[in-house]
Fold this sequence. Notes:
By secondary structure, this protein is mostly helical. It has 8 helices and 4 strands, in the order H-H-E-E-E-E-H-H-H-H-H-H. The chain has a domain at 78-256: Four Helix Bundle (Hemerythrin (Met), subunit A), CATH 1.20.120. The radius of gyration is 19 Å and the shape is elongated. The protein starts with a helix and ends with a helix. The structure holds fe (ii) ion (2 copies).
Amino acid sequence: xxxxxxxxxxIRLVRxxxxxxxxxxxxxxxxxxxxxxxxxxxxxxxKRRHLTLSTSWKQSCTLAPAQPEIAMSIIAIPSVPLPxxxxxxxxxxxxxxxxxxxxxxxxxxxxxxxxxxxLKRQARQxxxxxxxxxxxxxxxxxxxxxxxxxxxxxxxxxxxxxNLHSHHGFEDSSVFPAFKLQxxxxxxxxxxxxxxxxxxxxxxxVLRLRSQQSAQALRLRSEVESARLEADHLExxxxxxxxxxxxxxxxxxxxxx
Length: 257
Ligand SMILES: [Fe+2]
Ligand SMILES: [Fe+2]
């Protein structure tokens, strides 16, 4: 079951869906492959859950110039749909029905979706700011104006990390234990979410170190490229995790008020 859950195909699809774009504000715009490209050239080797994901393909979208082929070795959540066995234990309420539900405005469902949206937007802005730096000429990376921007980017990252730790901390300490207690049949699903948080923590630690770097470091194009790759990973992980988490938590919030 676990190997099905982390199947190569799923990884490929999700990575394709959430591969990088280069826009400050396109958080909600899906990244589309250009017509002459496909994701079929990707190769993913999944060793275990907190794992090495080796991927190599050309990624591109209609919003950004094609990026060179990349080979990554990262700690990542393979953000895939929930396994069938877990899905079957969930309450039968489709995403399309959520906003129409009589409890949507009064339950925690709305707050969860709003919080997730805000966190994903903040991550998107961080990614977009780094992309902006990458689009500058080398001689412009070192100017005073760019260094001021680098300082703002650093502060933005620090705020993002604070918000993410706060959000995950609340879920770990309050939401998940309550769900396990009140809805034991969702235990396996909640445990998957807890594992996601552990994997995310590893990436957040990398980002914490990044946020402690001097803004001067972003004078170097190689540093900006590394930072943007980290931002890519963060977005992939957040989108995948939050999508699954919403599908577990929201139907319960709606059903039980
Ligand atoms: Fe979470
Ligand atoms: Fe969450």
